[in-house]
Amino acid sequence: MTDEQVLIPRHVAVIMDGNGRWAVERGLDREEGHRAGRHAARRFMRAAQARDIEAVSLYAFSTENWARPTPEVDALMELIETALLVELQELCRHGVRLKVSGRRWELPAPLQRALSNAEEATAANDDMILNLCVNYGGQVEITDAAKEIARLVAAGELQLDDIGPDMFGSYLYVPDLPPVDLLIRPGGDLRVSNFMLWQIAYAEFYPMTEYWPDFQPEHLDAAIAEYSRRQRRFGGLALDD
Ligand code: IPE
Ligand code: IPE
Ligand code: MG
Questions:
Q1: Are 151 and 171 in contact (CB under 8 A)?
Q2: For residue 3, is pLDDT > 80?
Q3: Which of 52, 58, 96, 117 gives the lowest tally of CB atoms within 10 Å of its CB?
């Protein structure tokens, strides 16, 4: 492959990390970091769409983030709700369809309403998918799917032999997404923190030292350039082997 060839990943997932440290290093409240992170998400969405990426998954709140102090959790819930209301027109104008992954039924009622409203309002958009992961955990996503499949088997509606990877994947929160090609994690940590454990099976991991609020379109270009240089083998052999 020559340096000029750029492969655009179909599905890019982002662990939007580092908001708190970004704020603390500036003598600000962690909540200010989350607000700045929201604007980074907006920049990222625009950049992803301009580069013809089909689907984006953004990790906004994990099933483990409830362990944070209540004021921070409350601020995050309100911030996500406000962002959805403020950005809805923008999503529609740009043809972005919102999907939601996570145990949404455990979220505060106003946020649940904002999520459903944005999903309905963007249902006909087909330029790009935004899969917003709120109260999301890879482990509960898999066990929620396993429970539903077990229920169908117990009811005689499914046979054990019907269960396989493709079929299992169709019971995840948002089943019709392509697999994650590129997983970006700003903030310097080298772990997946319970994000899309099923979908990232063969994703290329791209860690960044910069904090999420500092994310710029150039970082996405650098990630795509690196992705283009990777040799994906999916367990097989390279074409020239
Ligand atoms: C990520 O930023 C946002 C959420 C987890 C909601 P953090 O708040 O985890 O920022 P750091 O990792 O403490 O810097
Ligand atoms: C992952 O970041 C969750 C989100 C970005 C929403 P965390 O800050 O929660 O991850 P850990 O605790 O450092 O693994
Ligand atoms: Mg963090």
A1: no
A2: no
A3: 52
Q: What is the largest CA-CA distance in the chain?
A: 59
135 ligand 1 Cβ < 6 A: no
pLDDT for position 238 = 84
Ligand 3: centre distance to CA 126 (Å) = 32
* Residue/partner pairs of 108-117 with CB below 8 Å, 24 or more apart: 108/77, 108/81, 110/81, 111/77, 111/80, 111/81, 114/80, 114/81, 114/84, 114/85, 115/84, 117/84, 117/88
CATH topology of domain 11-229: Undecaprenyl pyrophosphate synthetase (3.40.1180)
- Residue 106's alpha-carbon distances to 112, 173, 197, in angstroms, are 9, 14, 21
- Our answer to whether residue 131 is catalytic in this structure is no
19 Cβ inside 6 Å of ligand 1: yes
Active site residue 135: no
pLDDT at residue 241, as a whole number: 62
Q: Is 18 in the pocket of ligand 1 (CB under 6 A)?
A: yes
pLDDT at 137: 99
User: By alpha-carbon position, which residue is closest to atom 1 of ligand 1?
Assistant: 17
- 146 vs 103, 131, 235, CA distance in Å? 15, 21, 26
3-state secondary structure of 130: strand
204 phi, psi to nearest 5 deg: -85, 130
The domain spans of the chain are 11-229
Catalytic residue among 3, 52, 65, 221: 65
User: In ligand 2, which atom is closest to the CA atom of 16?
Assistant: 5
Tens of pLDDT, residues 163-194: 999 999 999 999 999 999 999 999 999 999 99
